[in-house]
Request: fold
Amino acid sequence: MSWPRVLLLAITLVLSACAGQAKRVSVELDWEQHRAQLQKLENWTASGKLALRTADKAESATLQWQQQAGESHLSLSGPMGMNAVTAHSDGQRMQVQRADQSREFDVSTPDAVLRNTGWELPLQALPYWLKGAPSPQLPVQSLELDSERDLLRALQQDDWQIDYLEYDDFQGLTLPTRLQIQRTGTVVKIILHDWQTHQAE
Reply:
């Protein structure tokens, strides 16, 4: 697997109109309360699988994403533990380790990922998207809620389309367990079967 593909995998790990005014107020309040909970959730671990597809290739891996405030740590491994990759980012720099090879680069500018990997990916937005919230750093182009549960069903930011297909409850929070992220021929499907929220008392 080439370095651009390794880095792409490492780094690659949404309001509808309501019928009545009273219902609209209720939905907004419930959604805002849920989003406020997610904003407070800064320390968490999610594990599962991802499948990445582009026009000329397809990859899959098991993943574990650990978020500690502004720092992200991602572990990826392929079938039978082959091609294991770890990546760590503090929001300014990213270090990617594969076997005995290591690379480090600046991710603090918008075009940094593109310049270093050949792909333009929303590195800073992913921790928010994974837990079911818009990134505060990007304008919301569109946002759709599930009318029954007041959770994100679909989100568009920076021309990326994020579709939330399934949720489950973990330690008092409802969090995504199946989602899809796509833009311009890149499709990432993510299944998260376990969340540890590490919430402060």
